[in-house]
């Protein structure tokens, strides 16, 4: 199973002692984007709770203008407030959505918890319609647990 193999590789990146947290997060983004065919953009946004903004910390894929997102805005901003996974099978059906590229058709955002607090999220964009399953959610929750341990 591809996700099981990838879990081992994510753990290996997380366990490297010499790299910074941000470079490990970037390496994880690159791994996921390279290895999962329908992951076209992968990034981590981290929350600033005082300012109520999300900040792009690491990513793989095309650079985005949306490096700072207010809580409540777009799919990412909604997850900052809901603390819940958000799977969007078809972005055209969403009113509160920030378009990063016209090629994006679907998106998944999974909150990242540290000591029970929602401190950020992993965000994946796909050029496929409705590609994400419960297996993606389970896998990305695993990834976020690994990343939380680095922070
Ligand atoms: N589409 C996101 C914005 C971030 S980009 O996908 C990189 C949203 O609606 O929050």
Keywords:
binds methionine sulfoxide, Beta-Lactamase, 6-stranded antiparallel beta sheet, alpha+beta
Describe this structure in words.
There is one protein chain. The protein has 151 residues and is α+β, with helices and mostly antiparallel strands. It has a single domain, classed as Beta-Lactamase, CATH 3.30.450.40. It is 35% helix and 27% strand. It contains four helices and six strands; from the N terminus they run H-H-E-E-E-H-E-E-E-H. It has a six-stranded antiparallel sheet, sandwiched between helices. A hairpin with a 4-residue loop joins strand 1 and strand 2. Helix 1 runs antiparallel to helix 2 and helix 1 packs parallel to helix 4. The longest helix is centred in the N-terminal third of the chain and has 15 residues. The chain is globular, with a radius of gyration of 14 Å. The site of methionine sulfoxide has 15 residues, from strand 1, helix 3 and strand 6.
